[in-house]
Design a protein that fits this description.
about 200 residues, 7 helices
C-alpha cells in the first residue's frame, strides 16, 4: 500500500450527474444533441484519467531480477499525463527515471508503469516526482534514485497567467545521487541531453 492513498473504485453515475449539473450551472442545456452524451463521455474519461487511484504502483516493481549490475540505469522521455488537483486541468510532459541497482534490477517498462500509475490521479507535479522516487527507493533498495519531470500545465496555459509553452521542471534525488555531486551531475547530463 502507498501511504496516504485510499484505493477505491470510481462512481460513474455520480460523475455523470455532476457533469450534468455543471452544464446546467453554466447555462447550457444538457439535453441538446451535442451535449446529450457529454456526461457519459466525461465520466469514462475520468475513470481512465484517475485509474491510478485504484491500483498500488509499488506492485509494478514486484518483478526483480538478480543481476550484478551496479551502474546507472536511465529510462527517459516517458510520456506522462496527469490532472492538477487544484483545477482538474491536465498537465503533461515527460518523466525521466535514473537508478543505480544494488544487485537487483527490474523491468524497464515497470519504471514507466510506476510513473503512469501515480500520474493517473489528482496530482501535484512536486508530489508525483517524489512518489515515483520514493516508491523505487523503498521497493528496489537501489544505491540511489533520481527522477525528473518536465511538464506543461493547462492551468497556466488556458487560464490565469495564460503562458502556453512554459514548462515546470521538478526533481527528486535519493541516495547516492544526493550524496555524490559527480554522480548527480552525470545523471542530469544524460537525462537532459537530446538525441
Amino acid at each position: 500500500r502507498v501511504k496516504g492513498v485510499i484505493f477505491m473504485s470510481i462512481d460513474i453515475k455520480k460523475i455523470e450527474e455532476a457533469v450534468k449539473n455543471i452544464l446546467e450551472a453554466i447555462g447550457e442545456d444538457p439535453n441538446r444533441e451535442g451535449l446529450k452524451d457529454t456526461p457519459k463521455r466525461v465520466a469514462k474519461f475520468y475513470e481512465e484519467a484517475f485509474s491510478g487511484l485504484s491500483v498500488d504502483p509499488q506492485k509494478n516493481l514486484d518483478v526483480e531480477f538478480s543481476e550484478n549490475h551496479e551502474e546507472m540505469v536511465i529510462v527517459k522521455d516517458i510520456p506522462i499525463y496527469s490532472m492538477c488537483e487544484h483545477h482538474l486541468l491536465p498537465f503533461f510532459g515527460y518523466a525521466h527515471i535514473a537508478y543505480i541497482p544494488r544487485g537487483k534490477v527490474t523491468g524497464l517498462s515497470k519504471l514507466a508503469r510506476v510513473a503512469e500509475d501515480f500520474a493517473r490521479r489528482p496530482q501535484l507535479q512536486e508530489r508525483l516526482t517524489s512518489q515515483i522516487a520514493d516508491t523505487i527507493k523503498n521497493t528496489l533498495n537501489p544505491h540511489g534514485v533520481l527522477v525528473v519531470i518536465e511538464a506543461e500545465h493547462m492551468c497556466m496555459t488556458i487560464r490565469g497567467i495564460k503562458k502556453p509553452g512554459s514548462r515546470t521542471v521538478t526533481s527528486a534525488v535519493r541516495g547516492i545521487f544526493r550524496k555524490n555531486a559527480a554522480t548527480r551531475a552525470e545523471a542530469f547530463s544524460l537525462i537532459m541531453s537530446k538525441k
